[in-house]
Design brief:
Protein name: RNA polymerase sigma-54 factor
Keywords: DNA-binding, DNA-directed RNA polymerase, Nucleotidyltransferase, Sigma factor, Transcription, Transcription regulation, Transferase
Domain RNA polymerase sigma factor 54 core-binding: 80-265
Mean pLDDT: 84
Helix content: 40-55%
Low-confidence stretches: 58-83
Structural class: alpha+beta
Distance between the termini: 95 Å
Number of strands: 8
Domain RNA polymerase sigma factor 54 DNA-binding: 279-438
Strand order of the largest sheet: 3-2-5-6
Oligomer: single chain
Pfam families: Sigma54_AID, Sigma54_CBD, Sigma54_DBD
């Protein structure tokens, strides 16, 4: 048997998308939200001497009128707001130095404060603390007691039960049995085995209900009020105006820096007879032009997607119950002749400002459930609203079971399984029927 090897040349044409660095950066810029884009542009301006950032922030009438009216610093209340926030640790240290004398016990208090976490809980065992400091168990307990007398109420607790007890202890408006019920029957209360508690303390179930409702007003993390609130503000990318039943979608450029080219600096550098300088300045010019073009493309893409979303969801903006029709990323992508992933990047973390609130663009997308009677589809968000409405209007003494919700939805031509109702209920943060039952009805 002979084995022969034949060599031949073939020419093939293959179409491939080359992911250049600039293309990757363009995709990333589309994915950025407003704050991330701002930070990216500021970084680029530091790297490129040809980029000059001009602030695009417009002062509100309130700000300008305030500056005219309150010329006296003592009466300008906006100036009284501190520019930095005190941390929980600093707040506790200030109270300790203010309220407690310089004694050995205060030294132990200062030691324990080092182990208070951001939620206000003590993270070190008292026995371990005693070993590290050489103090007795009683001395460490006394030190902890002093911490637990500080503000905010509940600070220095070693667990949730103790945290709630510390808050109840200081509240004169707390129900009479609240403290002792939390202290002795915390697990029964949490697991809603209230008849056992009522029998033990010889009270009505409605009294236990009041205690449970009161506990809902307490905070499980007293230190959380000291967390920074920066980054919680949303800068909408789009704004809508509704007039005469017509909706106009606008790009929101307020707060976004405006790129300007440093023409004078560029011309001075061009006059320098040095090839490296010439190459460098041309590279930075190209970078400026690319960045300016990419930012414009990003804004145009978000605006196009936003307009199509608004066009498809007209009822949401005109009807009080804010209904949504089923709509997918693919449908918008096909209409606009762009890739589905582009639509996804254009709606994630991007927000639409309306006269009745601010909404993430992604929230307008939902799959549909078939409606047997009409043949049309009902969006999952609409089903969730129906479910929420049923729970809101139920008899709290006899809450609706998931199966009962299925039956009631079917009467509204919404045919879904009990498992789906359970999934939607949990997604909405609605407890099961046994945990929704109230005893004060």
């Amino acid at each position: 048997m002979k084995f022969e090897q034949h060599l031949s040349q073939q020419q093939k044409q293959v179409q491939k998308l080359a992911m250049t660095q600039q293309l990757q950066q363009s995709i990333q810029i589309l994915q950025y939200n407003s704050e991330e884009l701002n930070a990216y542009i500021e970084t680029k301006s530091l790297e490129n001497p040809l980029i000059d950032l001009q602030s695009n922030t417009h002062h509100s009438d309130f700000t300008s009128s305030s500056s005219r009216t309150y010329t006296n610093e003592e009466h300008n209340y906006l100036n009284q707001i501190p520019d930095s926030q005190t941390s929980l640790f600093e707040f506790l240290i200030d109270q300790i130095h203010l309220n407690y004398r310089d004694t050995y016990l205060r030294t132990l208090v200062l030691f324990l404060v080092e182990f208070i976490d951001l939620n206000g809980y003590l993270t070190i065992d008292l026995e371990e603390a005693a070993q590290q400091t050489g103090a007795t168990a009683i001395e460490m307990l006394d030190a902890l007691t002093l911490i637990q007398q500080l503000d905010p109420a509940g600070v220095g607790a070693r667990n949730l039960q103790e945290c709630l007890m510390l808050q109840v202890e200081r509240d004169d408006t707390a129900p009479p049995l609240a403290y002792i019920v939390i202290e002795e029957e915390f697990d029964l209360l949490a697991n809603r085995k209230w008849p056992l508690i009522a029998k033990k303390f010889k009270v009505d179930l409605s009294d236990i209900q009041k205690i449970f409702d009161y506990i809902q007003t307490l905070t499980p993390s007293p230190g959380s009020i000291f967390e920074s609130t920066s980054g919680l503000y949303i800068r909408p990318d789009l704004t809508i105006r509704i007039k005469n039943q017509q909706i106009t979608v606008l790009s929101n450029k307020k707060g976004m820096p405006k790129l300007q080219f440093q023409q004078a600096y560029f011309e001075r550098m061009q006059a320098v007879e040095d090839k490296e300088v010439q190459a460098y300045i041309q590279e930075k010019k190209n970078e400026f032009e690319w960045l300016e073009k990419t930012i414009i493309q990003r804004g145009d893409t978000i605006l196009r997607v936003g307009k199509e979303i608004v066009e498809r969801q007209q009822a949401f903006f005109f009807n009080d119950d804010r209904p949504l029709v089923p709509m997918t990323l693919r449908e918008i992508a096909e209409i606009l002749d762009i890739h589905e992933s582009t639509v996804s990047r254009a709606v994630n973390g991007k927000y639409l400002e309306t006269p009745f609130g601010v909404f993430e663009l992604r929230s307008f997308f939902s799959h549909g459930l078939a409606n047997e009677s009409t043949g049309e589809e009902t969006s999952t968000s609409s089903v969730k609203r129906h479910l929420q409405r049923l729970v809101d209007n139920e008899n709290k003494a006899k809450p609706l079971s998931d199966q009962k919700i299925v039956d009631l939805l079917k009467e509204q031509d919404i045919d879904i399984s009990r498992r789906t109702v359970t999934k939607y209920r949990e997604a909405l943060g609605i407890p099961s029927s046994s945990k929704r039952k109230r005893y004060d009805q």
